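Appendix B. Raw example, untouched.
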Amino acid sequence: MPRTPVARRCSRCPRPGRARALLAAFALTVALAAHARADAPAPITPGPEGRRAFDDLTRHYRGQGKPPFEAALKDLASADGPRRERAGRYLLALFMQAFADDQSGRGPCRRTPFFGGGSVCDARELRRELSQAFAARASGPAALDAALWLVTEEKVAESQAAGMHVIGRVESPRVTEVLRGLLAPPHPNEEVLRQAIALGGARRLAGLAPALRALCHSPRPAVRAAVVKAAPAVGLQLGGGCPAPTTLSPFWEAELRAIAEMVLTKVPPAARWMRFTHTDPSSRVGGKPVVVEVHGWLLGEEPEAYRALDRFARERTLPKKATTARAGSLAEEAKDLLAARAPGRRDVSEALSERGGLTGQFQPRFISLPEALVAAWALARSDGPVAAALLVPRIAETRDDRWIRWAVRDLLGHQYHQEMLEAFSLERDYGRAARLARHLG
């Protein structure tokens, strides 16, 4: 029986093993492309307005012109109802997408050439510009969702207030519920809260009286003044007006407890507040040794040294032979801190920043670490009046209730980050470096 000839292999065809490798490579390429598509930026709001806002912002970041928000603002006043609604959805999508781009980095940021000038971010600056134009020109129910987003989600204080300006011009049953939500619990932005109180009074919304009564105890003078002015219109009898509070609300007590938790070294219940005067012979100015005042908790005492936690949350070891110590109190410390901000004092940063003006120029003016920490420690020791005496004036200097905790977080975070780097690279104390890293995390 004749043998069947074996088919000759095509010289241009891949071998079976190579074919499998090519198929695997093709499958991997498809998978990677799909993964890249999944991770690629995409509109965060659905619908055609969301896609349009995304594409317009993409062109803006490339330097191809700003989104046409002026046309959208004009369309909010159109006689065409669907056109007004589309304009409102587009403006909302523009705010939301620019905010997301700011957070994700899709909107580019550039360092300024000025010392301490920080960065300029395209998405944030565009939102700021758009919010001001929105406040000046937007009105009508179609603008309400975008205005409410500014008030509740935006982090820039001026832009939050801009949204409230628009809400004040909207005639809609929804506005009453919006005001209820802004007054109880109170919105953290002082200007938003003040405008909401004024709007409730202007519209004679009697149902807001309980919320206004609670706000009569606000630590913010502008808010208390707004309550006094709006009270008759909503049927609220205040009697003695709205004096400044001498105790802290549950919200502010919670904020101080959160601040105390940010300190890495915990204060033992039996620790005493002390005032140390330390002479450092190794540091001299004008040929004389430097004398340093250290105020803080006495954590422990050894034969040769004191161990202390100072009012900047730094652990200190002070040799006894170069240090004198006397008992102090949180009330005495609060009195000195308040005196540092007395009218006419020009050296506030010298008294409230760790290295005076050298560090104070980079730190917020409305709060300092000593003020925040002494208030938090006073509350922890059940001395609410001392905590309130320190914190209430600081709250009045801010535009947003969240700023104090954010500022303390940043101040302590920077300090602990520096300590971590020094412990790791200079001191080779890897245990302390790891402890600091875990606390920062």
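End of appendix B.
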